[in-house]
Amino acid sequence: MIKIHPLNVGTITRPMTGFGYGFGTEVIDVPLIAWYIEGSDKRILVDTGGGDPAKAPPRAAPYKREREQTLESALGKIGVRCEDIDIVVVTHLHWDHCGDNDLFPNAKRYIQRKELESARSPFPITVNGYNKRMVDEVDYTVISGDKKIAKGVKIIFAPGHTYGFQEVLVETGTRRILIAGDAISFFKNLEQDPPLISGFYVDMKAYYTSLEKMAGLKADVILPGHDFKVFEKEVYY
Asked: What are the beta bridge partners of residue 153?
């Protein structure tokens, strides 16, 4: 059976509106989340958090990461080392999802071609959302569109939040679970039909097309990108 472990790798403090279009301006703490997929024929990590706060871009603040929230520590708690990882799926290149992409000496790092291209030539208003070193200096395996990457694990191209955003669909053996990342910030976003989009996006038309695609996947569980409620379960399967 394939299992998904959510890993708490830091906390940022932001207005609610950034996580749901029209949510309002209340300022809240939200987690940064990485996901370890266990039980496939490859050992897979989805996203890597914000990395060392001292090396994060200025836009990262307020951002804090406790010692036990480093990716090495979070993985170590479930008996995994960085060198054990075979695949890192980069949902997108915003700083809070790729800050430790360079920690995995034996891993392929899958990214969409459109994501890498847009992050390397960003619009001025988005440039501060990227960790330039992770964009320019990490070796990526570039793909275009959906791709099966391991037994029961498939990358789903879902642009809107960014130009090359991607999700991960996992067939655990009993259920279909979608790691939606920033396409769906909170479980609360799923209470509307269609789900409420993030307050940050680059293409609203593509976003809603991706939500239609998400609905067509008929996932039993959709895991959001910044909701503390995901930690109410240690493992999803």
From this structure: 150, 170
pTM of the model: 0.97
- In single-letter form, the type of residue at position 11 comes to T
Q: Are 30 and 19 in contact (CB under 8 A)?
A: yes
Q: How far is it, in rounded angstroms, from Cα 169 to Cα 148?
A: 9
In angstroms, the CA 165 to CA 180 distance is 10
Separation between Cα atoms, residue 33 and residue 35, nearest integer Å: 7
Does a cis peptide bond (omega within 30 degrees of 0) precede residue 6? no
Phi, psi of 79 (to 5 degrees): 80, 30
Let me know: does 2 contact 38? Beta carbons within 8 Å. Answer: yes
- d(CA 146, CA 13) in angstroms, rounded, equals 32
Percentage of residues in the chain with pLDDT exceeding 90?
Answer: 98
Strand, coil or helix: 186 = coil
Q: How many angstroms separate the Cα of 26 from the Cα of each of 31, 33, 111?
A: 16, 21, 33
For the chain, the distance separating the N- and C-terminal CA atoms, rounded to the nearest angstrom, is 8
CATH number for 3-229 (one of 3.60.15.10, 3.30.300.130, 3.40.50.720, 3.40.50.300): it is 3.60.15.10
Interval 210-236: pLDDT, tens: 999 999 999 999 999 999 999 999 999
Q: pLDDT (tens digit, 9 = 90+) per residue, 18-70?
A: 999 889 999 999 999 999 999 999 999 999 999 999 999 988 999 999 999 99
